[in-house]
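Archive maintenance. Older records in this collection stored only the sequence; we are now back-filling the structure field for every entry so that each record is complete. The fields below show one back-filled record exactly as it appears after the update. Entries are processed alphabetically, and Helix-turn-helix domain-containing protein is next in the queue.

ARCHIVE ENTRY
Title: Helix-turn-helix domain-containing protein
Organism field: Roseivivax lentus
Length field: 82
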Amino acid sequence: MSITGQQIRAARAALGWTVQDLADATGVGSATIVRYEAVERGLPKSRKNNLETLRSCFEAAGIVFVGTPEEGPGLRIYGTQE
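Back-filled structure field:
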């Protein structure tokens, strides 16, 4: 399952990460992350496995994504990486 731009923004904010922090942690370019976060509804258009890479990074930091991209996308915070 993929994640929405709103979920990316929310997860990053919940962890206190900048776009650059997330880019450094995942290898996904900061301009790409900004573009993903700008998508207000549905899934950002993505090549490669960037959305999966972002999701895996957030999950490793204690974020759990809930709902579906079409209905009720959200997240829960279970812990943070120091």
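Update note: The two ends are 26 Å apart (CA to CA). The beta strands are 63-66, 74-77.
Entry marked complete.
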